[in-house]
Amino acid sequence: EYDTFMTESKVDKAAKSKDVDHKEAKKQDSSQALTTKDADLEGTQKELDAALTYFDKLKPSCVDAGVSYEDRVSRRKEEVESLQEALRILNGEDLA
Question: Which of 13, 23, 66, 70 lies 20 to 30 Å from 38 when distance is taken between CA atoms?
Fold first, then answer.
């Protein structure tokens, strides 16, 4: 009975030892993957921060400066008319 118990205990101990080895290897792999992911996250976060800073810098020049659509259209129309008048003057057409 003692020999049977010792044999079973040795087998059980060997299996558990092997299980511990596998779990330690898995833990090491997971730890290494976490380190890699953290480094990737840090790099990506830096890129995002740089992009957001650039966006904030560009935003004022791109966002509507308080001028309505109708005002912009009327200014474009005036600009086009003045350019057409300048073209007529340059071509020597009579303004009268």
Answer: 23
